[in-house]
Amino acid sequence: xxxxxxxxxxxxxxxxxxxxxxxxxxxxxxxxxxxxxxx
Length: 39
Hints:
Structural class: mainly alpha
Helix content: over 70%
Distance between the termini: 25 Å
Largest sheet: none
Strand content: under 5%
Number of domains: 1
Radius of gyration: 12 Å
Oligomer: single chain
Shape: rod-shaped
């Protein structure tokens, strides 16, 4: 799971870091979905 890996690799365990990780995972998933849809 990308989110779990990102969280484990975070330098500090805090809400901000976890939130940013989820946002990045969501954006990556959205971009991939759009790319596959328009392919």
